[in-house]
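User: Here's a chain of 306 residues. Predict its fold as tokens.
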Amino acid sequence: MTNIVVSTFYHFTPISKPEEIRDKLAFKLCELDLNGTILIASEGFNGTISGTSESITFGIKYLKEIAGSDQIMHSESITNTLPFYRLKIRVKNEIVTMKVPGIDPNLHSGEYVLPKDWNELIKRPDTVVIDARNSFEIEMGTFEGAINPGTNNFSDLPKWLDEHKNQFEHKNVAMFCTGGIRCEKATSFLKQRGVKNIFHLKGGILKYLNQINKTESLWIGECFVFDYRVSVKHNLKIGEYALCHACRSPVSKDDRLSSNYVAGISCNRCINNKTEKQRARYLERKVQIKLANERHQQHIGKVYKN
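Assistant: Prediction complete.
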């Protein structure tokens, strides 16, 4: 398949029966031959799907019908690489896990900043720029001058924000993340904590990379994405990173030169954390994928609902 459309989206909206919405979505998106991952919770939905342009259009339209709103935050890009092999729709406690009760971006959150206005904001001396993503993502790329909170999970960020609040509570706080959902929830947390001048990048890094010319950009590196593209660059072109299928970590071109890297089996991050039994299982999976490719069959592609 060529010219695959990838759509990343989220929407905070009350959902009283997440399981019912999951089943309706699974039926409709399978009918449209869409693949991807979607999380549903009582606070809304969050996901990325891929397919033909026509199918994506109908899929997003259906999501808007479910939400009862045209205001779903979503962005689209084109790729020739299959980003997903199956459709997974899961019901969770949160669509982005913060583990802080009472956070509702519909009630209060930061002010949106369009990509075209982002550079001006983050270059101001009275602005503190905070990357709301995890450390491994930030290692791959971030904005000039952005603070790395050093978190391994989004649920670690509230503690860091509380501990460092005195460093930014009287300044402009500019937050960003991949598609916008994490920084929207993080700004809601800060609003609840009494911080006033809070801003976040509308549409996230993906929208910025798709709209801002590289010559004007303040972005350095690549942006990790949660699909088989692994990373993207300006204009959302596929980046140079690969994925270690043993530990799901991104692997750079330099890391792939290491003797610890064996495609599908190990990398520098997991070489000492996996057993021989696990590696044997990964090797068998690699063999089965190779055999399926030789038979021109798809190795994976099941719909998951849980």
